[in-house]
Hints:
Helix content is about 75%, strand content about 0%. It is mostly helical. The protein has one domain (about 1-60).
Amino acid sequence: DPRLEHSYRLLGWRILAATGGTGLTGRIADLAREADSLEEYEAARERELGPVLDGLERGENRDP
Length: 64
């Protein structure tokens, strides 16, 4: 259901904006706080962290 998916993405964005942290988690939280909308956050995350996140999602980088 597209509405449910959007709700989960929106909730995740707002939770990230309320958290802190260091390293990658902290950077993602900063992007969430700086964004005025879910779409703006997702675009900023993809622009700044896309290559890093893509690398982390590759099969060879996962635990067996």
